[in-house]
Amino acid sequence: MTAIAGAGIWDNLTLWIPMAAGLLVQLIKFITTWVCQRHVDFRVLVQPGGMPSAHSAVVTALATAVGIREGTASTAFALACILASIVMYDAAGIRRAAGRQARILNRIVEDLYQGHPIAEERLRELLGHTPFEVIAGAAVGFAFSWAWLMLI
Predict the structure, then answer these.
(1) Which class for 128: exposed (0-12), middle (13-18), buried (19 or more C-beta within 10 A)?
(2) Secondary structure of 78-140 in the HEC alphabet?
(3) Considering only CA atoms, which of 123, 119, 130, 121 is closest in space to residue 102?
């Protein structure tokens, strides 16, 4: 299916379904944190990392929506798949490695300045995702997009 002539941005399901999938995953993380840690932390709604991966959900929902609406032989689907693979590789690889480095740097700072106040704030350690978090995010994105376009 192609875009309807005269349809505006608000009618573009290929845009809004992935965004809704990302919001759904962030909401899942918020509720999980609330239930497991017994306190409300609104920062979870905008922080990277955690289970499942919102990045993976968004790009997989996008590729799924493009594949369903434009066809899997389309150039747009190829672009969406390449984008999804790069984002998921980055989430599980590069950003995860940066999180490990932050953890090590935080330990070094703690060891060097043990007992002395230090003005530096701690580096954020949860930047990336485990492969399981990426796969879970991709599964949510695919299922959400497929259900919206095929069942509704």
Answers:
(1) buried
(2) HHHHHHHHHHHHHHHCHHHHHHHHHHHHHHHHHHHCCCCCCCCCCCCCCCCCCHHHHHHHHHH
(3) 123
Say how far apart CA 61 and CA 35 lie, in whole Å. Answer: 27
Reported as a single tens digit per residue, the pLDDT across 67-82 is: 999 999 999 999 999 9
- Report the share of the chain in percent with pLDDT over 70: 82
* pLDDT of res. 19: 93
d(CA 106, CA 3): 50
